[in-house]
Amino acid sequence: MIRAIVGANWGDEGKGKITDMCASQSDIVVRYQGGANAGHTIINEYGRFALHLLPSGVFHKNIINVIANGVALNIESLREEMQTLIDAGIEFNLRIGERTQVILPHHVLMDTYEEERLGDRKFGSTKSGIAPFYADKYSKTGIQVWELYNKERLLDKLKHLYEKVNVQFKYLYNKPEIDYKEVYEKLIADAEFIKEYVCDTSKLLRDAIKEGKNVLFEGQLGSLKDTDHGIYPYVTSSSTLAGYAAVGAGVPPYAIDNITVITKAYSSAVGEGPFVSEIFGEEADELRIKGGDKGEFGATTGRPRRVGYFDAVATRYGCEIQGATEVCMTCLDVLSYMETLHICVGYEYDGVVYKEFLTTDKLYEAKPVYATLPGWKCDIRGIKDYNELPKEAKDYVEFIEKELGVRISMVSNGPKRDEILYR
């Protein structure tokens, strides 16, 4: 099976747990886009981990884990992440694409300086350098992994790149200039560190597919953060869709035969942008504290996530643009304290109720239209069979399934790997 696991919403849907769970049935797990700007929290027999660049298959010794060409590779972050696993006694098999592009020091700095410059107009960046990285990538001034091993070419390219970057730092941001020779020395050391892992990952994956291997593509963030189809400009700088797995990893698009889309039983988001079903005040604080394993706080940034009621309009849209063949709902147990459950089933905009997702300007003005269902008011952690859930919990899942038009095949009722109910 060639499967993609992707998010339906704003990210933070619980993809890490599901990828970790499905990895045991896979030969290869692949990260194909994004960088260290988001994290997947995984809880298993080794402990609790927040992965940012490493694929979630690293906890399975015999699996090949691939960082593919479409990833924004921060080698310093990768080194720290790998060391965390090594310190925990975890052995893993890693491959890094030779055409993968590298995050450079000015990307992170520029991300930070630009958010400062924008002030109230900021995008809510994680300041991980992702937007400047992709700007350089598509301007064809970035550095690919293979270029790290051609020292003369690398030095010359950095010299010309930082002539332009330093003009911007000096005159736009009023910040210190960067010495390209220091960047060169850092990259030479980085190149030595990753050398044993570098290969043609696209060929590795194409060969694996021809051989009938099971490959799992792991997406970062979610549908609504997609550059082309999300809440632009409050999006990430790469495509978060399952379809991009073919591009970022270098495999045939028709090879992906299962697209598992993850959504929470409620809504959460990090960063700026419209969020129609968002809640505030004490109600939001209670949901935020009860959410997930350690509350609704970003795995990478630690920032409190924005939270709200389940948005069926946004989630249906997310499933459709992902091409969902099945849906997994996570964090159902979090809602066990609620007397009444609200589900956003429409957007009221300019006196008209819409069932389809709207463009960013209209989303800011839209008001949620809610359906209400009774809560189940009991702890459902520990239940192993979906049919043993309280009737109200099953009604909630099945109401949402009808709204989405895609089968909810799995329901997660806890953060651990085995806390999953199959339907």
Mean pLDDT reading: 92
CATH superfamily of the largest domain: Adenylosuccinate Synthetase, subunit A, domain 3
Spatial ordering of strands, largest sheet: 9-7-5-2-10-1-11-15-19-20
- The structural class is alpha/beta
Low-confidence stretches: none
CATH architecture of the largest domain: Alpha-Beta Complex
Strand content: 15-25%
Shape: globular
* Count of domains: 2
Roughly how many Å is the radius of gyration?
Answer: 22 Å
Give the biggest sheet.
10 strands, mixed
User: Gap between N and C termini, in Å?
Assistant: 20 Å
Q: Provide the CATH topology of the largest domain.
A: Adenylosuccinate Synthetase, Chain A, domain 3
The helix count comes to: 12
User: Which CATH top level class of the largest domain fits?
Assistant: Alpha Beta
The amount of helix comes to 25-40%
